[in-house]
Amino acid sequence: MLQNKPCLFENSFTKLWKINELWLKSDGSLNLDYLLNMYETFKCPVIVDENTSQCEEMTFREYIEKYIFNKKKGYLKDWHFQNLCHNNGLPQVYELFSILKFDWINNEEWTTSSKNNPFGEDYRFLYFGPEGTWTKFHCDVMGSYSWSANIVGKKIWYFVPIGNEKYFLDKKCGNNNYINDIRERKDIWKESGVFEVTQNPGEVIFVPSGMWHQDLTLSLNHNFINAANIELVYDLLIKRKLDVEKEIEDVISMNVYTNEEINNIKENILKLDLKINFKIFNQLIEKIKNERENFVNFFNANNIGNALIDINEVNKENICKISEIYCTCDEDIYGLNTSNIKPFLEENTTNMTDIIPKHMKELENNDNIGFTNVKMYLDSSWFIIFKSPAFINRRLSTIINN
């Protein structure tokens, strides 16, 4: 996560999910009878025209009968299926594994509360479409990370290295507009660095913050923010705020609006454009800060062991799952032993370089690591919970002033 690179997790990470026994037949195909029996009355949004992104709301049964049974190209997209299950008292069919539990949007106590959730809703989705349906070229909202678990069939992803999305600007539509389908421009794929990834059933793909992509698609998806990409989200807000100020400079120069009114205009544009603004961002940071202050001992060198124990008791982000099983901590902070983590990662991941925290090698080879290095390790993607206070103390005053 800290390296902000895509990564593919093998199906060993999802093999124990309930979805495998409930939604799939023995041959790996979808058990549509079960799905209809459980979710037939759920309302869902369906893209009925891929050229215009025209969307219609219908029941899940209507979608299955009209599009899946008849093999028509209707794409069920951005369906808040997980929240519907929660609201209807139905159990979730999957459980986040450790890395994916570092999620400030979808894995907090306020996630399912429209009143307390800073975003007003969760960012957990289900996507479903017959062969040939696909998602147009895009970058995920808010500068967030995302992950997608493929349930059936093969899914093809097209990734463009960060910064090279400029190759796919639609010159007919002006700046900041991109073509819908980059497959139409395969002539510039090599120059732009496009690379293709095939995702098999049961595999989970991690999509970095700010990386443009396009995919062909039943999959589960989360868009999420945590300490590893919160600064990227903040930087995106600053960048887009400057763009907005240029776009409305004529309005500002009229001197008919107060500073507060101008700020509200900018905030409204940011929310429409990015699904997040400084007010929402600040609310999120405050909630995380208050939540973590109850359980984390801000790296007090005298009782780092107690801090880990506290987190083990709370288990807010499943940090103890790895700390208990795959590493051991002596009473003295200099005795951190991570020798058991690497074999676990080698056994369960496709690309070690994308998963092992960048400070792992230093920790493994240094028996007398200092407290700073421990904090650096705890800042890694495995122990991301510890980073929030450090980030908050450094950024919060700046954020509030925006």
From TrEMBL:
Catalysed reaction, written as an equation: L-lysyl-[protein] + 2-oxoglutarate + O2 = 4-hydroxy-L-lysyl-[protein] + succinate + CO2
UniProt GO cellular component terms: cytoplasm; nucleus
Biological process terms in GO annotation: positive regulation of translational termination
Alphabetized GO MF terms: 2-oxoglutarate-dependent dioxygenase activity; sequence-specific DNA binding
Cited Pfam families: JmjC
UniProt-listed SMART domains: JmjC
Boundaries of every JmjC domain copy: 91-241
Classification via SUPFAM superfamilies: Clavaminate synthase-like (SSF51197)
Family recorded in the similarity comment: Belongs to the JMJD6 family.
Name of the featured protein: Jumonji domain-containing protein 4
